[in-house]
Structures are given as structure tokens and as C-alpha cells.
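Posting for a labmate who doesn't have an account.
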Amino acid sequence: MLFFESRRTKWIPPVRSASKYRYKLAFVTPDGKYECIRLPFGYVNSAADFQQAMDKILAGLKWTIAMVYIDDVTIWATTWQEHCDRLATVLTRLINHNVKLKPNKCHFGFKKLKFLGHVISKEGISPDPQKVEAVQAWTVDQLQISQRCTDST
């Protein structure tokens, strides 16, 4: 199994109905008032909007040759040639939608990959052992504090 992973893409979706909502993203500096024309990360819905945009860009490819979680794209294949073909397909989509990638954040040809708390390899998907260790190391006190924070009663 081979993978491509991209992290921290530079593309940010345009603000929906830009002129209608730009004032909501305005900020003031000593040099004047500015309004964002691209949705910056850090705002409440930025990550959700970016995820939605990536879902649309990679529509038809998700779950078949690629997975996307916000700004992480993972492509899998069983042979090197298949990996290159799939990579070309995904990169073409990204290019067609003006998504730019930082080369130093792109990684190619993994045989084993940690992704969202899991280890993915030709053997399949398993929990990341480091995450399992962290959960097993929790004390009863930590679990009780955690339960109190989430208890709705």
C-alpha cells in the first residue's frame, strides 16, 4: 500500500457571497479597516467550509482512491504505477481548483502511515499504539473529571 499525504494547503475558500458577508470578517488596524476576501482559519466555520470545499473538489474520488480530512489528503494504491496514476488524478483536480500545496508538507510513497489516530498499512487499519497507551495510562481521577465535564445532569 502506498500513500500521498499533504498537510496545510495554502488554498482557502472565498467568503460566501463575498460582498454580502465581508463586513463580518472586517478588522481594524492603525492603518485602517480591512475586510477578508478569503475565509481565514480560526473563524468558527472555517474548518467546516474548507472541508466542504475539499469534499466537492474530490467528489467521486473519495472512498475509492483518496480520503480527505480538512487539509490532509491520503491516496492509497497496491502498486507503484497505480499510486502514480491516482496521484496524478488527485493533483489534476487540485490544480483545476487552484489548490496550492507546500512541497515540504507533501509526503509520497509511504508503506505505513499514521492518520487520525490510526496506522494504515497493507495489513489493514489498526489503532495507533501511542494513542492506545495514552488511554490506558488514564487514571480513575482523570476519568471521573472527564465524566463530570461531559455529564449533562
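Reply:
Got it, the C-alpha cells are right above this. The CA atoms of residues 42 and 48 lie 11 Å apart.
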